[in-house]
TrEMBL record:
This is ATP-binding cassette domain-containing protein. Residues 4-236 form the ABC transporter domain. Keywords: ATP-binding, Cell membrane, Membrane, Nucleotide-binding, Transport. The keyword Transport applies. SUPFAM superfamilies: P-loop containing nucleoside triphosphate hydrolases (SSF52540). GO terms for molecular function: ATP binding. Pfam families: ABC_tran, BCA_ABC_TP_C. It comes from the Bacteria. InterPro entries: AAA+_ATPase, ABC_AA/LPS_Transport, ABC_transporter-like_ATP-bd, ABC_transporter-like_CS, BCA_ABC_TP_C, P-loop_NTPase. It comes from Achromobacter veterisilvae. The lineage of its organism: Bacteria, Pseudomonadati, Pseudomonadota, Betaproteobacteria, Burkholderiales. The keyword Transmembrane helix does not apply.
């Protein structure tokens, strides 16, 4: 059974059907690309998955259990984590302490939180700034720190919405290497990104949305070559 089963999701904003019956299965350990032109409903769908928006119809099952309509806090506890919205960096606390506090809040003991924090800081190349207050970090470093905080206790499914937007190329490299490594270790992701080279590089499979529907679903290279997909992007 797929880890995440998404079916018939509909979300209306007034007269606009932002998501119009979208569905897809996500297997445990998959790194799925979610692509499509601007306004095709990708962010709205992620917001439904993370509980930030209530769907008008459809279902979302995690391990076979319906989780549609649960609030973001419940979903986070179940392991459905939307990045950059669920975490907060405290500016007057060190990068290291930010991660430790986050780990403690997620139920780790002090030794475990400390160990994970050090591992993550190393992996995200933040070791040299770990004792600086988070407020002194660059925007990109802060984003990496927030990113790391989400993995103090790895979620079942990590939902990433344009994680590379406005991130320095070197940090983008660090972040994509991190995503790849974690995925190789079994971490499940849904990645929304306009950065096609990164999507091609990271995601074996992609779903392309258009006008709130799934236009194509399959191997990324194949999806990108589909005439309907090319046409949708040309109309952007
Ligand atoms: P994408 O992430 O693919 O760019 P979105 O999910 O952000 O697309 O948006 C899908 C459609 O829904 C767009 O037409 C957008 O303008 C509209 N939309 C998104 N959020 C809202 C909202 N809160 N209120 C009204 N319309 C919205």
């Amino acid at each position: 059974m797929a880890l995440l089963q998404i079916s018939g999701i509909q979300k209306r904003f007034g007269g606009l059907l932002a998501v119009n019956g979208a569905g897809m299965d996500v297997a445990d350990g998959e790194l799925l690309g979610l692509i499509g032109p601007n306004g095709s409903g990708k962010t709205t769908l992620l917001n439904v998955l993370s509980g930030h928006l209530a769907a008008d119809a459809g279902d979302v099952r995690l391990d076979g259990r319906s989780v549609l309509g649960l609030d973001p806090t419940r979903l986070t506890r179940l392991g459905v984590l939307r990045m950059f919205q669920m975490t907060r960096v405290f500016n007057r606390v060190s990068a290291y302490d930010n991660l430790v506090v986050c780990g403690l809040a997620m139920g780790l003991d002090e030794a475990g939180a400390s160990r994970r924090a050090l591992e993550l800081l190393e992996e995200l190349k933040l070791g040299h700034v770990m004792h600086l207050d988070a407020g002194q970090l660059s925007g990109g470093q802060k984003k990496l720190l927030e990113f790391g905080a989400c993995f103090m206790v790895p979620p079942r499914v990590a939902l990433l919405d344009e994680p590379f937007a406005a991130v320095h190329p070197i940090m983008k490299e660090t972040m994509s290497a991190f995503i790849r490594r974690r995925n190789q270790g079994g971490q499940t992701f849904i990645l929304v990104s306009h950065d096609m080279p990164v999507v091609v590089d990271l995601c074996a499979r992609s779903v392309c949305m258009n006008a709130g529907r799934v236009l194509a679903d399959g191997p990324t290279q194949q999806v990108l070559r589909e005439p309907a997909v090319i046409e949708a992007y040309l109309g952007e």
